[in-house]
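ok so dumb question maybe but i'm new to this and my supervisor (M.) told me to 'just get the structure for Leucine-rich repeat-containing protein 59' and walked off. so i did the thing. is this what she meant?? sequence i used:
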Amino acid sequence: MSKNSKVLNLKDTINGNEVDLSLCNLTEVPVRELALFTKATVVDLSCNNITSLPPEFCNLTHLVKVDLSKNQLTCLPDDLGNLTSLQHLDLYNNKLTVLPVSFSQLRSLKWCDLKDNPLEAELAKAAGDCLDEKQCKQCASKVLQHMRELQDEVDRAREKRLLKEKGLERKREVKQKDREAKEKEARKREKAEEKEKRRKEYNAQKAAMAAQEQQKKKNEEKKKKNGLAADKKAAEKTAPKPRRSLISLVFKLLLLLLTGLAGVAAACRLTDLKKEAMCVPVNVAVDDGLSWAKEQEGVVRQLVQNLSSAAKEFLESTQASKN
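this is what came out, is it supposed to look like this??
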């Protein structure tokens, strides 16, 4: 059956605002076709072989009354609560055991029939017998109340789970921050240790350089002192030499002069030159010198005697003092 024939057949089932699809041997709900007729607010899908409702069924928010009795439904879609306009829901004689938690959001629901379903005990107790109009209205009210309680429990459980997850997340964050803080502290400590190591190396290098510089200065001072001492010694060794050389030279000159004078005097006195005019003053000087030497002979002899007497007296006085 083509899409157009489906639409045409669906049109044939519409009567005012009602769509009658009962006893059509349907296994699924024609959601797309129903969505095209928003004015059809009442849908009868009873007495078919429908086992489940597609999620898109929850988008038919214009529905006010839905009859799904005498089908094979085992579950309802989770978003059934989106049907906020739904007032009448017939689920008689299906295979439902539970209802979706969103069922509590059907704020407009006034009538509900859940009999002849294998419902869970608490849900069956809330649904009641649904034997007449009044009981079906009570079913809608009590089931909504029951589902709201379940919704609250689910919300609390979800909130508790979220709080637990948040707590775990906070713990993870705290652990992460602690780990990052420890890593940061470790990096900081490593940097400080590395800096201290570099500082010690720098101080050691500086101290070594200072020691080298000090040793260099000491060596220079030592060399300077040794140099001064050597210069002093050299000066002491070399200083007398010029004096000795000078005295020696003067002595040699005097000796040479005396030798020359003696030669001249000898030539003037012992040779025929003594009669020459140039030798006359020489002979006179020699005679005067010899006379002076004779005169001084007695003085020298007296001086020697005096010194001998003084020495003899000094020796005698020394021996007397010893005794």
